[in-house]
Amino acid sequence: MPHVVLFHSVYGLRPAVRATADRLRAAGHQVSTPDLYGVPAADSVEEGFALLDKIGHDVVLDRARAALRDLPPETVLAGLSMGAGVAGALLAERPDAAGLLLLHGTGGAPDAVRPAMPVQLHLADPDPYDAPDEVDEWQQAMTDAGAELTVFRYPGAGHLFTDPDLSEYDRSADAETWPRVLAFLAAR
pLDDT tens across 148-182, in order? Predict the structure, then answer.
């Protein structure tokens, strides 16, 4: 089973991120959950964006690169919301990644996808941060780039629908997500 690096959302390294890592570990995966902020997690999305602004996107990416430095080339890059963007941004630097797992955000990166790269996206439908037409364009670009893409959209779910500590948590969407994620990782 591949190693998985799981990048957190704009909130920071919250209990839900650790719980996700534990869920993946229970399925036999080695999982790293780097703290891209180096400070306690935010209590609100506004505080999270303020932290990101204070720390800076370049510092966040440098910390993500440092976290990947000693991991195998075939590590699965995974991320939650902002972390999906981090995973996508680093894909070009990790051409042998075993896959790209995107939860709560598209993560960009169509130009960095190699043919037949496994990519799985889980997204609220609609999502306040990824407009439907932008998601459709991203999906087409990923397919055109040759990605082995699977997209799961969760109607009516909130943006971070897998985080039980947030009001946008959706028990049904959460329950559907994890078997799909585990099947994706088991195939790597």
Answer: 999 999 999 999 999 999 999 999 999 999 999 99
User: Cis bond leading into 126, ω under 30°?
Assistant: yes
Judge whether 119 and 88 are in contact, CB under 8 Å: no
Rounded Cα distance between 140 and 148, Å, is 12
Domain positions in the chain: 3-186
Q: How large is the C-alpha radius of gyration of the chain? A: 15
Q: What are the E-state strand segments in the chain?
A: 3-7, 30-32, 76-80, 99-103, 118-125, 148-155
| Integer angstrom CA distances of residue 120 from 11, 15, 20 | 22, 23, 16
| 107, pLDDT greater than 90 | no
Q: What is the longest distance spanned by two Cα atoms in the chain?
A: 40
pTM of the model: 0.97
Best CATH choice for the domain 3-186 from the list 3.40.50.300, 3.40.50.1820, 3.10.20.580, 3.20.20.70: 3.40.50.1820
Numbers of helices and strands, H then E, in the chain? 6, 6
* Whole-number Å distance between alpha carbons of 144 and 52: 32
Strands (E), 105-186: 118-125, 148-155
